[in-house]
Amino acid sequence: MASxxxxxxxxxxxxxSLVSASLxxxxxxxxxxxxxxxxxxxxxxxxxxxxxxSSGRTLTYRTYGPPNGTPLFYLHGSPSSSLEAAALVPxxxxxxxxxxxxxxxGFGQSSLYPNRTLTGHAQDVIAIADSxxxxxxxxxxxxxxxxxxxxxxxxxxxxxxxxxxxxxxAAPWKLNPTKxxxxxxxxxxxxxxxxxxxxxxAYLRRSFDNKLKCWSVEERRDFWRKDxxxxxxxxxxxxxxxAESKEAVGEIVDCTMEAFESGCEGPIxxxxxxxxxxxxxxxxxxxxxxxxxxxxxxxSTPVHGAREMQKAIKGAKLVExxxxxxxSILVNRGAEILGDFVKEG
Length: 345
Prior knowledge:
The chain is of the alpha/beta class. The chain has helices at 4-12, 120-131, 146-155, 183-194, 196-199, 202-214, 217-232, 237-243, 246-259, 265-275, 303-312, 328-341, and strands at residues 47-52, 58-64, 70-75, 97-102, 137-142, 161-167, 290-295, 317-321. The protein has a single domain, classed as Rossmann fold (3-Layer(aba) Sandwich). The chain has 12 helices and 8 strands. It has an 8-stranded mixed beta sheet with strand order 1-2-4-3-5-6-7-8, sandwiched between helices. Strand 5, helix 3 and strand 6 (161-167) form a beta-alpha-beta unit.
């Protein structure tokens, strides 16, 4: 029988806010074998693909933009999905960029991968690139995808990387990433950090999945809508404006719905990985074209963490956007970031 503290945590914590959701412009996929299938609210954007690895795992990913465009791997936030990359679609054709956006293990219809690591995801990126015949590419990660992007900078041979970027990315624990974080984010971050055993209990996963099973699609959407509004209470003014947009909230919810299509185990695993000790050191990143983008009013992944990561990563460039926050940075600065990151596009 689960302890009282485990039961209390299962009601207190909503998993979409362990690492803040990301803003997107997209619709969910309706994959028929999903455990909790989503109900599309917009025409589906992007082409959904799947790749069967030699290990037997399946990776799903979406592609956006011109097929012959400059390849850019986009690593989604947590919990989020490949749908998130559609936020950049309006800016792709004019820059001749092709985005490839994988779903991490346990997200969407990508297979779960027990005991996975941050650097292990770099091998998944390489596997997709190889299957598409792509030799050199860029990688950029948003929010909870930031650590995975840095893991690529650490683990992928430099001759295959044209650039690595992080947008509003989570920083490792040793750099005091909660400095400047909103109170709810700070609380959740520390709960996951110090009670990670709780998040690995079968009881917690089962109780949350059972809750999802009892709800209709619209009830699940309403749950995530409320979560976005609760998250936005302590955020900056520009993030609050995003959260007041019915369309923007619907797009965030669409992405979160896909994240949990196979249940909550993948997103829970991701949350624990992001706040635990990373399996690589920033100081050991040898790739010298790493760019960090952050809003000065980001209270989910505060600017303090980005500044400390710049100091730790040799040659890293930091771009700060005055007044922007965690949600607003992609809305207000997406085109600007792509223009800086893929100059020849």
